[in-house]
Structure to design on (70 residues):
């Protein structure tokens, strides 16, 4: 496994875990409250990271190839 794949896998697993925890907290937040707005903003940022990581894994993008040393 190269460095880019490891980074994308780590990002994907960490962000998916945080997104699942955040989604589990939604029923306990009041609609329209400041906490819910922050949660929605955080979830949208996490969704972007998930899409970037999944796309990088799918297409084999290697932005960290310089760290492989070959």
């Amino acid at each position: 496994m190269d460095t880019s794949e490891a980074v994308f896998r780590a990002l994907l697993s960490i962000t998916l875990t945080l997104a699942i925890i955040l989604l589990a907290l939604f029923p306990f937040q009041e609609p329209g409250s400041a906490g819910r707005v922050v949660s929605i903003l955080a979830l949208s940022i996490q969704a972007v990271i998930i899409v970037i990581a999944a796309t990088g894994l799918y297409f084999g993008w290697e932005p960290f190839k310089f760290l492989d040393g070959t």
The chain has a mean pLDDT of 93. The two ends are 13 Å apart (CA to CA). Residues 28 and 37 are 13 Å apart (CA to CA).
